[in-house]
């Protein structure tokens, strides 16, 4: 699913009006109805609902929502925040329609007009929407502050008033802090960014049938991966396939004290469809790995505690494997750095790089130029910061991510809520699955195993990253259903992996 910017959203509105065709006021009615359908479902107990409207089309939506809720016998109070002398045409139209059914529209012009809001009430925020062009001030700001202080549930129409759709707010901006945001048709970039969490709450998209062809043709670097997108990427297996059809992966993982990372990545790799798996671990991990993961072949390194790339038994050169995954639990021993230094120039096919392998890259930046093209890097934000530089806000972080992926021609998976997959072409795919339970040791090792398996099977690296991150988050969601986000472990995530 695409994420469009504020200008494109405005153009999409116009394109729908011209091409469907539909009168602007009817499109607003459709949006209001979609909001009300959601609202009636979630707030069926008909508490007193205070609707705060601005003077633009977001306010127009609010007035239409008020009329539709009145028709459904909700106890409604309507407040129009009069911050400017002019209203939009569709606001005016809905104002006239509302006046036909109620004469209790109240106006907020000074702080004295702001009503008190009680804890058992619901607030609908329709003051400002995607047309926000400057920070809130004056009576708009005071009204937002009063709503934020109130103990009531708050539902934002389309986007919280005061929050920009696709550019950074400053730390002094006054913005609605909703419990829910109900947005029209497409997610907004602002919803996905960590710093905006309290200005978004739980968000949901409602379909208002905006012009599909416009959306299909609109250029954007931002995508949001949902189940249907991931399903399209998943390959079917041929009945006549054999284990040779799904590649032979090599995992270079583990060090003394961190053989668990090797076990987790190996088990996840096997659960993600790899044909054959060889795992190279320091000698101290040999018996553990052979016992814990009997499906994998094991190459003990000559070093007892760290990977050096030398094996005591006959082994294939790394370049002959379909792909390799390197990093989980390896540490930063000088011997391991030498292994990485010797290894990278011999490789031509994309590989997966995680954890301390990333930290070695950030400490020895000349290695970045040696990465095989289209390799997948999986940093969490701190690791990514070490690879680049600190950012002032989430938008700068996205720019940094895009620049890095383009410069080194790699796919970067920035892990976190809505993990972002940046491609060498400059696109960013945000993931929709996952939960805070995934912030626990070992889940990153699981992701490395998954991505290595997908590359071994011949998936294109961008598709592997988008699909793998989605499947990892989905497994996390299933594990959380069973154990709760507090009780789940990385092993539960592996057990919950499914590829259907
Ligand atoms: N897109 C779609 O498909 C659909 C969209 N719909 C709805 O339309 C909404 C967008 O409507 P909108 O464009 O009228 O913008 P909105 O935010 O209501 O008001 C803009 C006005 O506020 C002003 N203003 C700006 N900042 C301000 C500030 N800080 N303090 C005070 N004023 C400020 C601004 O002034 P200006 O920048 O022009 O000087 C302008 O006059 C969208 O969120 C959704 O709810 C649905 O109805 C149908 C389908
Ligand atoms: K709003």
TrEMBL record:
Molecular functions per Gene Ontology: ADP-dependent NAD(P)H-hydrate dehydratase activity; ATP binding; metal ion binding; NAD(P)HX epimerase activity
Keywords in alphabetical order: ATP-binding, Isomerase, Lyase, Metal-binding, Multifunctional enzyme, NAD, NADP, Nucleotide-binding, Potassium
Gene Ontology terms describing biological process: metabolite repair; nicotinamide nucleotide metabolic process
InterPro entries recorded: Carbohydrate_kinase_pred_CS, CARKD, Nnr, Ribokinase-like, YjeF_N_dom, YjeF_N_dom_sf
Residues reported in the UniProt entry to bind K(+): 58, 125, 161
Catalytic activity: (6S)-NADHX + ADP = AMP + phosphate + NADH + H(+); (6R)-NADPHX = (6S)-NADPHX; (6S)-NADPHX + ADP = AMP + phosphate + NADPH + H(+); (6R)-NADHX = (6S)-NADHX
EC number: 4.2.1.136, 5.1.99.6
Textual note on the cofactor: Binds 1 potassium ion per subunit.
Pfam families, sorted: Carb_kinase, YjeF_N
Listed SUPFAM superfamilies: Ribokinase-like, YjeF N-terminal domain-like
Quaternary state and interactors: Homotetramer.
Family: Belongs to the NnrD/CARKD family. In the C-terminal section; belongs to the NnrD/CARKD family.
HAMAP family: NADHX_dehydratase, NADHX_epimerase
Protein name: Bifunctional NAD(P)H-hydrate repair enzyme
Organism the protein comes from: Spirosoma agri
Upper taxonomic lineage: Bacteria, Pseudomonadati, Bacteroidota, Cytophagia, Cytophagales
């Amino acid at each position: 699913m695409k994420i469009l910017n504020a200008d494109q959203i405005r153009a999409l509105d116009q394109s729908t009006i011209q091409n469907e065709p539909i009168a602007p006021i009817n499109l607003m009615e459709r949006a209001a109805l979609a909001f009300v359908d959601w609202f009636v479902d979630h707030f069926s107990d008909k508490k007193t609902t205070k609707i705060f409207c601005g003077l633009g089309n977001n306010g127009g939506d609010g007035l239409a929502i008020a009329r539709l809720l009145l028709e459904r016998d909700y106890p409604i109070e309507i407040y129009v925040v009069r911050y400017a002398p002019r209203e939009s045409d569709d606001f005016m139209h809905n104002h006239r329609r509302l006046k036909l059914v109620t004469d209790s529209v109240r106006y907020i012009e000074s702080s004295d007009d702001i009503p008190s809001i009680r804890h058992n009430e619901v607030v609908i925020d329709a003051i400002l929407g995607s047309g926000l062009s400057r920070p809130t001030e004056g009576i708009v700001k005071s009204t937002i502050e009063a709503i934020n202080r109130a103990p009531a549930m708050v539902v934002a129409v389309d986007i919280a008033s005061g929050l920009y759709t696709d550019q950074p707010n400053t730390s002094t901006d006054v913005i609605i802090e909703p419990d829910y945001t109900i947005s029209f048709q497409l997610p907004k970039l602002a919803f996905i960014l960590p710093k905006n969490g309290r200005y978004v709450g739980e968000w949901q998209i409602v379909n208002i049938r905006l012009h599909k062809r416009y959306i299909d043709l609109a250029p954007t670097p931002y995508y949001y991966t949902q189940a249907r997108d991931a399903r399209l990427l998943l390959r079917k297996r041929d009945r006549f396939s054999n284990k040779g059809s799904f590649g032979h992966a090599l995992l270079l993982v583990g060090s003394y004290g961190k053989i668990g990372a090797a076990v987790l990545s190996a088990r996840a790799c096997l659960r993600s469809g790899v044909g054959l798996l060889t795992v190279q671990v320091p000698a101290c991990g040999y018996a553990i790995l052979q016992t814990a993961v009997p499906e994998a072949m094991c190459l003990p390194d000559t070093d007892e505690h760290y990977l050096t790339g030398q094996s005591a038994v006959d082994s294939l050169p790394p370049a002959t494997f379909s792909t390799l995954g390197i990093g989980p639990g390896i540490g930063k021993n000088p011997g391991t750095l030498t292994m990485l230094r010797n290894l990278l120039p011999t490789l031509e096919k994309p590989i997966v790089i995680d954890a301390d392998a990333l930290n070695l890259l950030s400490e020895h930046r000349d290695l970045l130029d040696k990465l095989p093209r289209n390799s997948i890097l999986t940093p969490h934000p701190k690791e990514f910061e070490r690879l680049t530089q600190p950012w002032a806000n989430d938008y700068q972080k996205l720019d940094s991510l895009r620049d890095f992926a383009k410069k080194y021609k790699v796919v970067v998976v920035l892990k976190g809520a809505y993990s972002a997959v940046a491609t060498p072409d400059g696109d960013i795919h945000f993931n929709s699955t996952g939960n805070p339970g995934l912030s626990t040791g070992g889940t990153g090792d699981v992701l490395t195993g998954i991505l290595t398996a997908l590359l071994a099977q011949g998936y294109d690296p961008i598709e592997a990253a988008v699909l793998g991150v989605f499947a990892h988050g989905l497994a996390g969601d299933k594990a959380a259903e069973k154990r709760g986000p507090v009780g789940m472990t990385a092993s539960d995530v592996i057990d919950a992996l499914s590829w259907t």
